[in-house]
TrEMBL record:
Native source organism of the sequence: Balearica regulorum gibbericeps
One Gene Ontology cellular component annotation held by this UniProt entry: nucleus
Catalytic activity: Couples ATP hydrolysis with the unwinding of duplex DNA by translocating in the 3'-5' direction; ATP + H2O = ADP + phosphate + H(+)
Protein name per its UniProtKB record: DNA 3'-5' helicase
GO MF entries: 3'-5' DNA helicase activity; ATP binding; DNA binding; hydrolase activity
Transmembrane segments: none
Domain UvrD-like helicase C-terminal: 300-424
Organism superkingdom: Eukaryota
All residue ranges annotated as the UvrD-like helicase ATP-binding domain in the record: 129-178
Length: 515
């Protein structure tokens, strides 16, 4: 807000303020055509150069801000050549120069973005007076530009954050908690949001995926459960907007009307843009006949040029994941889109307090908390353990960037009371040796006298009643509704999990002796 007051007003007055990012499409209209190069691909690399510069603490745009890789028109990753880097820098500098100018841009082609005027403020070397200390929250997601502003102040500085909740590296965020010199460090591992069950799942993600073992997340004394219990409204957290849309379709397609709330709101989710993309996909004569008016200014540009397939090619060309997801939704649901959009809009409530169910992505849910959280199936797919209970050779934690595990960790730690786990999350816990097993007295298991078959899949052995103890798998309901009823394990299956400790369950059953 400090930046907002300082610079926003002057640019807003001149009509030169852009509240969103400068799109690749708009950049393409500002650069020159060069023979043998795709205009959109070049615009993408220039856009990335500007974004990298805005996020940095540097004074000038240079080759370090240019991307290393780009995707060519065939979708193949190629190194950006030295010559192309020089061209990127030259054209990015020209755009930045025109963005900064308050006058002279009659057509308002060079509107300054939020990141742009933050950069201007950083370059002005601001000094905040009248403060004893600056408290920076979410410090793990600060950009170097923000860090430069903070560190240049003469008052005390307190940085607070969780490095395992860093999910914005794609925006140029750096983990300030590790990079900034400090006088004191305090580790806050006690959570007051949830109890030990949810804390255990979060700590296990850090253990298995990030090798964090010396600072264990600890929960409070609150009641909680991770095996399928639920209370009140459910919040479904997904990794992608595609899954959010599909959740909305399922929830609003029920016989009984249900009120949903999309975290962050429908406008931010882009439901109207999905509808406009569907309109674009219709033949021109059908659009005219049905009076289908495209309202989104960006989508409308394609109506006047290369149509739906041109838009799709553009999204693939510049690797625009958000736009690709929306196009994929339109291609999947086709002519159902108008009715689905109508249902979602009519079922959506702006206040989450009156909703029956909340849905959204982890990015939108960051910083929030909910009583019951359901983890969707679209996070990293962790395969089931093989027969010898070792990891499959075609899967490795290291195959995925750290942000992916951070996303899962953030999703899990939004829950206050109940966590409905996906199968992949259960498989991940199994990598740490957690199989939801407990030991019971054999006499309790066999008190009705009936023979008990092992509950493990593909095992038909029966329990050995001569043992004093027996291992039982606890029941677990997954986020997709499937249920593992659990049950008792035979000696062989127990040995697969407990190894050399198995004999501890084999002491003879105690017999009551008359006194």
């Amino acid at each position: 807000s400090l930046i907002f007051c300082h610079l926003r007003h002057s640019y807003k007055e001149k009509g030169k303020l852009n509240f969103s990012k400068m799109s690749v499409y708009s950049v393409s209209s500002l650069i020159r055509n060069r023979e043998g190069q795709s205009l959109f691909i070049r615009a993408k690399t220039i856009s990335q150069t500007l974004e990298n510069f805005f996020a940095s603490s540097d004074k000038e745009i240079c080759e370090e801000h240019t991307p290393i890789w780009f995707k060519n028109t065939h979708g193949i990753r190629k190194l950006v050549s030295r010559v192309e880097k020089e061209i990127n820098v030259e054209e990015a500098k020209e755009i930045w120069h025109n963005m900064k100018k308050l006058d002279g841009d009659v057509e308002k082609k060079y509107k300054i973005t939020c990141d742009g005027y933050l950069k201007l403020w950083q370059l002005s070397k601001p000094q905040l007076s009248g403060y004893d200390a600056i408290f920076v929250d979410e410090a793990q997601d600060c950009t170097p530009a923000i860090v430069d502003i903070v560190l240049s102040q003469k008052c005390g500085i307190i940085l607070v954050g969780d490095p395992h909740q860093q999910i914005y590296t794609f925006r140029g965020a750096v983990n300030t908690l590790y990079s900034v010199p400090h006088t004191h460090v305090y580790y806050l591992t006690q959570s007051f949001r949830f109890g030990p069950e949810i804390a255990y799942v979060g700590a296990t993600i850090l253990d298995v995926c990030k090798r964090i073992r010396n600072k264990t997340l600890v929960g409070g004394s609150q009641k909680g459960d991770v095996r399928g219990s639920r209370e009140g409204k459910i919040t479904i957290l997904s990794r992608s907007n595609l899954n959010v849309f599909e959740d909305a379709v399922k929830l609003t397609g029920r016989e009984r009307p249900i009120k949903i709330h999309v975290i962050g709101g429908l406008a931010r989710f882009g439901l109207s843009r999905i509808y406009d993309i569907w309109k674009l996909s219709q033949p021109a004569d059908e659009r005219k006949k049905a009076n289908l008016v495209i309202n989104d200014s960006f989508i409308k540009k394609w109506e006047e040029t290369r149509g739906f397939f041109g838009l799709k090619e553009y999204a693939e060309c510049i690797d625009d994941k958000d736009l690709e997801v929306k196009i994929a939704i339109v291609e999947k649901y086709k002519d159902q889109i108008p009715e689905l959009v109508k249902k979602i809009e009519s079922s959506h409530v702006s206040q989450e307090a009156v909703a029956d169910c909340l849905i959204g992505t982890v990015h939108q849910a960051k910083g929030l908390e909910f009583d019951t959280v359901l983890i969707a199936d679209d996070f990293v797919e962790v395969p089931c353990l093989s027969g010898n209970y070792q990891r499959r050779t075609n899967f490795s934690i290291g195959m995925y960037p750290e942000d992916e595990w951070n996303l899962l960790y953030v999703a899990v730690t939004r829950a206050k009371k109940y966590l409905l786990m996906s199968k992949s999350l259960e498989h991940l816990l199994a990598l740490a040796g957690e199989h939801f097993l407990r030991v019971e007295l054999m006499s309790e298991a066999t008190k009705d006298g009936a023979a008990i078959t092992c509950s493990m899949p593909q095992c038909t052995k029966t329990l050995q009643c001569g043992s004093g103890l027996v291992v039982k798998k606890l029941p677990l309901t997954h986020s997709n509704g499937s249920r593992d009823a659990g049950g008792y394990l035979c000696h062989a299956c127990t040995q697969q999990r407990f190894g050399s400790l198995t004999p501890l369950t084999l002491f003879p059953a105690l017999q009551e002796q008359p006194i």
